[in-house]
Amino acid sequence: MSERTLRGKVAIAGIGETTYYKHGQSPDAEFKLALQAILAACDDAGIDPKEVDGFASYGDDRSDAPRLAAALGIKELRFSNMHWGGGGGGVAASVANAAAAVHSGMANCVIAFRSLAQGQFARYGRSRLGAAAMGDDAFLAPYGLISPAQRFAMKITRFMSDHGIRHEALRAIAMASYHHAQSNPRAVMYGRPLTEEKYDASRWIIEPFHRLFDCCQENDGAGAVLVVPADRAKDLPHKPTYLLGTAQGGHHRSAAPVHNAPDYASAHFPTVAKNMWAMAKLGPQDVDVVQAYENFTGGVLLSLVEHGFVDPKKANEFLVLENLLAPSGKMPMNTSGGNLAECYMHGLEMVNEAVRQLRGTANNQVAGAEVVAVLGGPMVTPVSSLVLGTEATL
Amino acid sequence: MSTTTKRALPDGLPAPDQPPLTKPYWDGTRAGKLVIQRCKGCGAHQWGPEWVCHRCHSFDLGWEEVAPTGRIWSWQRPHHPVHQALTGFGPYTIVLVELPHAGNVRMVGNLICEPTAPVEIGAEVEAVFEPHDEADPPYTLVQWRLKD
């Protein structure tokens, strides 16, 4: 039996995004943003948008595939897919699902995308609950546990306490994103640098580990990538970037109700990371650049640990700013500014940045980058991750 | 049993929905009792409520009163008001309480303490029942305070 894998089977041929806006600032409707990003990805790939035959998204994206297909005059819709779960847990999974469709022959040319206009729709950081809290929320909201930050904070408190990790490690994560955004004109925080003093003086969102700058922005915009079979990518304008490994899901009962996951102080990547590295036939030591989804900096720490990038015993020493910076840090991370400082496009902007690094066209280019990992939104379930590489890694 | 008329948080937060799956828990708190799911097939404790036992897949889940004590497994102290009822209030303290005598299930509640009080993981706590009699339907929340 032949090996069942996506390694080297598909490529990202095009990337696209809209202008990124502060939340509520987009002059365009959410669906229009989705269309703009998708058309930009097709243009980047040199592929006629009418050739697209599938759409994959996540996080309950409101720009649904049938409407997109009709609006764009798609000749034939062969694949439409919404990945369960909130936030950016599904960012890598949307690319993986597009890849699975392409490799299996279900479709030929699939867009993975995310569109968000929080002016048009509701924000995440304010309650959208009604007078009655349903499901899990019935046991949480009456106690003032409502927002995403609050849903995850007690994981962080416990992990940091168990391992004696200091808040300064999280500060380095936030500062790396802001540092990189200063040389990325696409970034919402371009021209708005972050200093240690500014971070330390920022207000508490949640004690003991969530200051303002530990929390992601909320933004308006859209991002998209175009996934095609590997052999087709060779004839397109850009240097192909290949999918080497990907996985999604969560370990044993990670979604157990009311904060009862057996391994609670976790980003939920232990099995997902193992499966991703196994498919990629690589490990963290082979990665040149890391894009690690920041919903909250504590989640980045957990995610880095569970993918094998950081030993919790050495986190205080390793997670310092100089180690995280392009071009020459030990582990250049979130090189476009990430969710914190480029744009909170639920991680889709990180997939685009991974492709730029492998093409050699990033604003903060790591010289000779051959392998880039994208660690999707942590602490939800399902989570997902992927590894991309250049032709040399096949 | 310990009850309090002084509420941990301002009025106006969402009230808990009480569908059939979780009703025995809310009926219990009204009577000042902490009751959680326990499988009649294999004896596993389970929280939050679910239709099936995660261990043996029995649908025959019973409810059992457990001692209203535990220890702090983790905590957080929100400052930013995420709901209009919390505007101008806070910070307040949320704890995740582990019940070692009930299969280590965990419950979420508020720790009744000063907003600047240090919180220690592992500290022993006991439940305090906080009735909301005026609500329709009425309900009782379970809060926690440090054991003397």
Task: Describe, in plain words, how this protein is organized in 3D.
Chain A: This is Acetyl-CoA acetyltransferase. Chain A: One of its GO terms (molecular function) is acetyl-CoA C-acyltransferase activity. Chain A: Residues 256-387 form the Thiolase C-terminal domain. The complex is a heterodimer of chains A (394) and B (148). With 394 residues, chain A is an alpha+beta fold. Helix content of chain A is 30%, strand content 18%. Chain A has helices at residues 30-45, 65-71, 91-104, 148-163, 167-181, 196-201, 230-233, 270-280, 297-306, 315-318, 338-342, 348-359; strands at 10-17, 21-22, 54-58, 79-83, 110-116, 132-133, 204-207, 210-211, 219-229, 241-249, 289-292, 371-375, 383-389. In chain A, strands 1, 2, 3, 4, 5, 9, 10, 11, 12 and 13 form a ten-stranded mixed beta sheet that branches. In chain A, strands 7-8 form a two-stranded antiparallel sheet. In chain A, strand 12 (371-375) and strand 13 form a beta hairpin. The longest helix of chain A is centred in the N-terminal third of the chain and has 16 residues, at 30-45. Chain A is globular and about 50 Å long. By secondary structure, chain B is mainly β. Helices cover 5% and strands 36% of the residues of chain B. In chain B, the strands form two sheets. In chain B, strands 7-6-5-8-9 form a five-stranded antiparallel beta sheet, with helices on one face. Chain B has a three-stranded antiparallel beta sheet with strand order 3-2-4. In chain B, a hairpin with a 5-residue loop joins strand 6 (94-99) and strand 7. Chain B is globular and about 50 Å long. The mean pLDDT of chain B is 97. The interface between A and B is large, with 44 and 40 residues.
